[in-house]
Prior knowledge:
33% of the residues lie in helices and 25% in strands. By secondary structure, it is α+β, with helices and mostly antiparallel strands. Helix 8 packs across helix 9. Zinc ion binds next to loops.
Amino acid sequence: MAGYRGEKSLVFHLSMLPDEKYYIFHGIRLLYQGYYFQIDYLILCSAFALVLEVKNISGELKFEKDFNQTTCKKNGNEERIKNPVLQAKLQAKKLKGWLKEHNCTAIPIHYLVVNSNEKTTITSSSGNEQITRHICNSEDLIDKIDQIANFNKEEKLDSKEMKRIKRLLLAKHTPENPDILKQFNLSPLELLSGVKCPICSYVPINLHYGTWCCPKCKLKSKTAHIPTINDYFLLVKPSITNAELRELLQIGSTSIASKFLTSMNLPFTGTYRNRVYHHPPKNQK
Ligand SMILES: [Zn+2]
């Protein structure tokens, strides 16, 4: 909840930025030199780009000049954590490389670590300005952005190039699709099969002549299987066969299963008997 609240307050502060000047990208994930990197918030305007690394760490954060170390003290325990400023700096460097790789006009790329936890205190050893000027609390973010804007007044990107970079970022963004079952140490066999009632969540509901009927709340639906199929794509694998679908929905009829798959307009490969249906591409909702 602390993370959620922190994020919400950050979104509130960012909403103060004028839309016509800034593009804001949240959680953009890009491939660079064989690895993905993800930027919490990327702010782009015609004069510069700004990478925000958002931290919601509770306790006391201390930045030490020696060895560029960061420690976090909580409930009397102090431990070293990854220096978030160096993390942000690295993200900015990767973004710079990525933009260059895609033949974008060079622009200054700034970076900031934003503390979104109101209860966290930040301290720093003296002579550490190289690090501390890249840190702020979320309520200070807009002032920081104004400062950066004042130092970077020269417009490097015309509106056409801005739009091109925006389209490029969105097209190349690859959302992470983690293996959730593996993460929770579950096997696909442990998932309940059958279709869930969209109203009362009862599993499994029954199919009568092409209509799903819930024995508990008496709901009737023609589309209740669609969320089940989408869940399967996300939880088990990004493709499904007719036999797998019958198993999943607990239905016997090959022709009904085929009808369901066809009506979802899923891309498919293979000929009729061994046809495999695929999860739709990410830009197709
Ligand atoms: Zn029901």
